[in-house]
């Protein structure tokens, strides 16, 4: 047998060895080893750096949360107070980064005191701190993420998109926010805030997360392009001039009727009093 192998030329000997049934498996394993070695040589530095930066951001957010939020929402965001009369907040597990970015980014959180509705106020944290807290809450459980800028950028919105956004707004939003986005009263001391000073990012996040009394308009209810068209319509409302000269808060018949009552009826009463006074003076002069 050995003499037969020795009689083969080197090329035929190697060809015979390559035809072994396990040769394909050996080649496959060698290829995988080569690819893995190349990946280990070039990829891990960036991957480890990204993971380390994200972990550091989450850890920073956890520290900020423990100082500014845990007294109401629990040390692990599980909700509830601390038993010492502090405001009991809801669980934040699963609300996502978008809810944190909206509530903290509009100054509603941290809340100063309990009430029927937490009002908007000056922002307490920097943008980096808000991102860190949002990253920490998002790490607890999946939830709506902060939308990308192109999701709410309406700088190139067409008239067709604005018109479509107006139809969607009047269908889904005017019952609370008024036809002109000026806001309105709700039961039990609550209210829908004006949208005239709200950024496109926060309007998008509000639709995603449904803060306070607002319903959630998920992407299954209002698709991303629907949300963007609504933001385009609200932006157009801010630039729209009042055709009558006075907007009267754009509150509709209520403000118009109040204006008519106070001014119109008031002028009529003043005129009647003046006429009456003139008539008394005329009778006195004749006497």
TrEMBL record:
It is a multi-pass membrane protein. PROSITE patterns: CYTC (PS51007). Keywords: Cell membrane, Electron transport, Heme, Iron, Membrane, Metal-binding, Repeat, Respiratory chain, Signal, Translocase, Transmembrane, Transmembrane helix, Transport. The chain crosses the membrane at residues 258-277. Its EC number is 7.1.1.8. It is an enzyme of class 7 (translocase). Heme c 2 binds at residues 173, 176-177. Pfam families: Cytochrom_C, Cytochrome_CBB3. One of its GO terms (cellular component) is plasma membrane. The keyword Repeat applies. Heme c 1 binds at residues 69, 72-73. It comes from the Bacteria. Its main location: membrane. This is Cytochrome bc1 complex cytochrome c subunit. It comes from Kribbella flavida (strain DSM 17836 / JCM 10339 / NBRC 14399).
């Amino acid at each position: 047998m050995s003499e037969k192998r020795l009689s083969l030329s080197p090329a035929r000997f190697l060809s015979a060895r390559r035809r072994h049934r396990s040769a394909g498996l050996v080649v496959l394993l060698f290829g995988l080893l080569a690819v893995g070695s190349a990946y280990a040589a070039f990829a891990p530095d960036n991957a480890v750096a990204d993971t380390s930066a994200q972990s550091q951001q989450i850890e920073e957010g956890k520290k900020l949360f423990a100082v500014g939020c845990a007294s109401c929402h629990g040390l692990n965001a599980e909700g509830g107070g601390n038993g010492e009369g502090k405001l009991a907040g809801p669980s934040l597990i699963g609300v996502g980064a978008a809810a944190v970015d909206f509530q903290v980014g509009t100054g509603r959180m941290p809340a100063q005191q309990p009430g029927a509705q937490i009002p908007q106020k000056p922002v307490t944290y920097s943008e980096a701190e808000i991102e860190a807290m949002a990253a920490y809450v998002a790490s607890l459980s999946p939830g709506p993420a902060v939308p990308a800028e192109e999701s709410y950028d309406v700088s190139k919105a067409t008239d067709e998109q604005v018109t479509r956004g107006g139809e969607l707004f009047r269908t889904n939003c005017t019952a609370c926010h008024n036809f002109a986005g000026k806001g309105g009263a709700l039961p039990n001391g609550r209210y829908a805030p004006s949208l005239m000073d709200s950024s496109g990012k926060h309007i998008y996040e509000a639709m995603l997360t449904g803060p306070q009394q607002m319903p959630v308009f998920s992407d299954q209810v209002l698709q991303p392009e629907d949300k963007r068209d609504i933001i385009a319509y609200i932006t157009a409302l801010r630039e729209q001039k009042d055709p009558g000269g006075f907007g009267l808060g754009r509150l509709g018949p209520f403000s118009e009727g109040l204006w008519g009552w106070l001014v119109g009826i008031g002028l009529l009463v003043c005129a009647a009093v003046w006429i009456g006074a003139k008539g008394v003076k005329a009778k006195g002069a004749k006497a």
